[in-house]
UniProtKB/TrEMBL annotation:
Residues 5-239 form the ABC transporter domain. Belongs to the ABC transporter superfamily. InterPro entries: AAA+_ATPase (IPR003593), ABC_ATPase_HisP-typ (IPR030679), ABC_transporter-like_ATP-bd (IPR003439), ABC_transporter-like_CS (IPR017871), MetN_ABC_transporter-like (IPR050086), P-loop_NTPase (IPR027417). The keyword Metal-binding does not apply. This is Glutamine transport ATP-binding protein GlnQ. The gene is glnQ_1. SMART domains: AAA (SM00382). It is a peripheral membrane protein. PANTHER family: AMINO ACID IMPORT ATP-BINDING PROTEIN, GLUTAMATE_ASPARTATE IMPORT ATP-BINDING PROTEIN GLTL. GO terms for cellular component: plasma membrane. The lineage of its organism: Bacteria, Bacillati, Actinomycetota, Actinomycetes, Micrococcales. It holds the Pfam family ABC_tran. One of its GO terms (molecular function) is ABC-type amino acid transporter activity.
Amino acid sequence: MSTLLRAEGIHKSFGERAVLRGVDVDLARHQVVALIGASGSGKSTLLRCLNLLEPIDDGQIFLDDEDISDPRVDANRVRARFGAVFQSYNLFPHLSVLDNVTLASRVVHRMPRREAEARAFDLLERIGLAGLARQHPDRLSGGQQQRAAIVRAIATDPEVLLLDEITSALDPELVGEVLELVRRLADDGATILMATHEMAFARDVADRVVFLDAGTIVEQGPPAEVLVAPREPRTRAFLARFTA
């Protein structure tokens, strides 16, 4: 598999607080990589840096061999190649589900409304939300809102899908339905980088697991190695929290 996204030596600080300290990470086409680590380890900041929502202090980011961290690059053009889903849905409350899903397709990618809506209905139908397409987000459950947010992110056929702890704001009974959608996307060949605390899901779905601690990558490798037989004491200490 060819490398699609590559970050080299990424540093990011907020004031005096260093959040990322020389992070190297890569993502191949059609690969699923799970980012694990404690809250505050830098996972969310790394994702936001990768699609240029946060400027980096040092290092380089390449998307399909283009240096997208070059300050001369059009950040909006780059972001249009990503799909991103965050912890708190971020659906526009004044728009219907259908309008939320089609917004980027129509405004950013200039897709005709009829074509954008046809694609949106097809995607919503696949996940059982077509009947709610005309509803506003406040009429949906948390799990339905998060699934709608994922559909919005994939409606533009992004090259890379970034998922940031997308189940952390959900009630436990709703987590499964969102993870099942991600599993289906992975099975369909999506390229996904996801920050998650769902270790069982990472073990079953990810091709590679990356453990981030205090802004540095401590260990990475196949799930069977990192999650089952980690080499590093810091990795073992982190994973012990989930088995205690």
